[in-house]
């Protein structure tokens, strides 16, 4: 491998109002290597990458590309220097062709100034061959699969002559076979001398594909090492940096009878024959890879998406849930995965968000009792320790953790007895995470049942009493607390241990 | 006792709080009025003020409905046509209503029943709008654009293109457009009632809050148990009924219903609502703002009328004011944002 | 690959659907009234197509950026009164200006373009939603129509400018062979816009801006410039339609083209261009325009009363949009 240091970021610091996102972080990438950037959510990875891409300006520190110091990094300079970022949300335009997306704004032209579509298609074909994507460049991106769209993004980066390609969670939406293909492409790019900065939570993958890792924690640089010299456990220790038991307080709640029972639930497009139950005072975890159908399950149970088959029982009684409002009337609540798009109304204030799901209970003499609303919201604000100037503050101005607390307040205010929480701590900094866990524990001690969906293994194993594992729309495994292990869960999640009939019966 | 007292004081402060976001607009309105009273000495007379009230009450009633629609993130272009439908239906059913087109003279009913039928026809138009938008998922702009053509067609079909006049207009019906109640013109009175009800609904009912939620973030609203389709449908029905009401009042005032009545009203109405700070993107807006918006446009129009400024200058000035006002909104908004991030 | 092909076929269907309808409608009207296929009637259809089509080309550009232009009708009228007013040959004209045909056309189009430019500036700089910005401009431009008309004909306010001019007559009434001049103008402009949209980077940028403005910015496209340009070009096209209207009647009315903007939007939407922006083509708009022209003339010829025409048009618009949505849903699902 070439030992040239192509990128060096020295002592980078960056602050946002109230938060030190990065403190003197170092990061360097060699030519032709795959370098993993590791850290929990909120560790500062995306801030660092945005500085690299020129989307943010650094407060302090230096960036060297090929040994040359770059003073003012902006998106254009970054692109000219050969830095390309492939975001999780692809930026392809669905209704334009593959070729056009690759050459967006840089379509090859003939001498008369008109676009040379023939050349555009030919050049695209050549570039697509480099990543082994066999589609007609004239195809609309909307007609491609997600993995193919990702390849188009990579092709786009290559067409700009990128030397450094940043991939942010590239395998999240992919199937195993697509991941294998992606890795082939990455290895090939490596041979062509392209450096890849690889961001992923899947540590096993990092073992497989990366050369070196740099670990960040709470905005600080923790260390850099060869992948070959560390185990997955070491990586976790570097990332988390503390004892898992401190991080995950136990609830010690008394586990009661079954409250929610789901039998043979199926939906038209994703879920197949799912059965499980939740007990009072229990935190039930649902693990699985992205796309395994966890969020779909939550939405189906909550009535947000239609169910094609199956029954749902609440406290032993069969109930019919056709819409979220039905679910709410049975005292269920859903804290969705995407807080900003599904959990909150950003331009509304804390109070209005808190009472959103329980407005009817504030009706006095035919009108909303605003005074009562304010009083109750204030109670929850204090109880959940929401840090905000007041209940009239727009939730848009709150930090991630506090926003999540407002979503929780909404369901507490609706007097919910079963909470489904999808990715409870996504995008929340470490301190607030612990607070959220403690809150969940307090709730189950009060007799609630909680279903918690999470992609973060340590979190699931630390908080849950029981874990269900999903794979491609079915439940493939169930583990009690004493049987928790990352390997078993991963195996179930990959669909490697198909559950026997016997297991299924036990769960019912 | 003390509870009562705190409620009383908070009522006053509540009004102040309600107005605060609109201070700039309100100041603009007062400034306009002061300027007008200097230029046109008879501007500030009671008669003229009542006149402004009466003239603007018709579009004002529609603006209240439009505020609800814009809050959901929708739009309704069919209100001018609904206005005409309701006017024509009411006029043809009321005794004394007469047209050269025979079918308009067939049935005669008591005034109140005729009005109720006209309002029900309007409600049906609104319901169709709502269903097409929520069930067929057609964009509100296109759906109501189609309804605008369609409803206008119904009016022509119903009237044969002939105006419906009155020989003579019954007093019971004339009262709506020309009558006075305690010295206040009846249309203005109806407008005031609609404003109060609208303000109450938006502030003090689940329905009002739901509209803000739907416009603010539809997915969140749905997942919080708010019934999106039902609430949106209701907003379009309310909008249509209010347009119908305005159409009936207008018919009464001019003692005539015409198939071309209300053409282009949708634009004026949308303009005044947006001027009052309601966002076209949904989720933001108030009745107070809308009322101020209506009167800003109304006062300008009135002042220009008194001054004898030709119509075309009026529409130019109206357009300029909309751009300036919204430009100011946008400008102050972005500068505020910048402050937060710094 | 096979699946992709099928999906793309479904995608094009909206245009195909309109084309098929068009053929059936044409046959239907001809069967009902043979004179529908007469040269007189065809001529009418071509003229209607030209009048609506040129402005709809402009509207297509604007809608592709994700915007809308409600000032189109007023700009049409404004272009008309400026063009006619500057001739100085209007009956009872009081203005001393008297310019040749070509100069009046040029000035009228410059002013039209200026209105579009202002639309663009207001939308991009003041960040006012296109709907409201062009709504205000609709009002302003209509006012200017009166200002111009009244300063030309100093009689009753709002009087039309009536005149005789060979240039305008040729534009609005002339024929080359059997084909109306205005239709030839339309075809030429159509080809120019088609090539512009398909073969120039600027043209492609319009799609990008409408598809995803952030992506466009990342791709180094100067989005504001593109939007301003689009509104300017659109208004110039609308202005040309306005001059044709004036030429057809030898008169420029102050109330001309009121509400036409909605017809233009209908033509564009019928052609399968998404009102959300980023997707569509002028070929679709051509079909949509032809559809409206055949429908209007056909309903006139078979003597359907104008109020039924309103109903039919409303229904067709909803139908077309539903078909579009339905097909898109299918594409997404499969």
Low-confidence stretches of chain A: none
> What share of the residues of chain C lie within helices?
over 70%
The total strand number of chain C stands at: 4
Number of domains of chain A: 3
What is the overall number of helices of chain A? 19
Tally of distinct domains of chain C: 1
Shape of chain C: globular
Overall structural class of chain A, as computed from helix and strand content, comes to alpha/beta
What's the N-to-C terminus distance of chain C? 13 Å
Any idea what the CATH superfamily of the largest domain in chain A is called? P-loop containing nucleotide triphosphate hydrolases
Based on helices, strands and strand pairing, what is the structural class of chain C? mainly alpha
Name the strands of the widest sheet of chain C in spatial order. Answer: 1-4
3D shape of chain A: globular
Strand content of chain A: 15-25%
Number of helices of chain C: 13
Roughly how many Å is the radius of gyration of chain C? 20 Å
State the strand order across the main sheet of chain A. Answer: 6-7-8-3-9-10
Q: What is the N-to-C succession of helices and strands of chain C?
A: HHHHHEHEEHHHHEHHH
Number of strands of chain A: 22
Explain the overall architecture:
The complex is a heterotrimer of chains A (508), B (342) and C (334). Chain A is of the alpha/beta class and 508 residues long. Chain A folds into 3 domains: 5-242, Rossmann fold; 243-331 and 417-508, P-loop containing nucleotide triphosphate hydrolases (Rossmann fold, 3-Layer(aba) Sandwich); 335-413, no CATH class. Chain A is 34% helix and 25% strand. Chain A has a 6-stranded mixed beta sheet, sandwiched between helices. In chain A, strand 19, helix 16 and strand 20 (449-453) form a beta-alpha-beta unit. Chain B has a single domain, classed as ABC transporter involved in vitamin B12 uptake, BtuC. Helix content of chain B is 74%, strand content 3%. In chain B, helix 3 (46-71) packs parallel to helix 8 (186-204), helix 5 packs antiparallel against helix 6 and helix 5 (111-134) packs antiparallel against helix 11 (228-254). With 334 residues, chain C is an all-alpha fold. Chain C has helices at 2-32, 39-64, 72-87, 101-125, 130-152, 166-173, 181-199, 201-211, 213-218, 223-249, 260-270, 282-301, 306-333, and strands at residues 161-162, 175-176, 179-180, 251-252. The longest helix of chain C has 31 residues, at 2-32. Mean pLDDT of chain C is 85; it is low at 1-11 and 330-334. Chain A binds chain C through residues 75-76, 79, 91-96, 100, 104-107, 109, 113-115, 117, 135-136, 139-140, 142-144, and chain C through 1, 4, 7-8, 11, 195, 198-201, 204-205, 207-208, 211-212, 214-216, 218-221, 274, 278-279, 331-332.
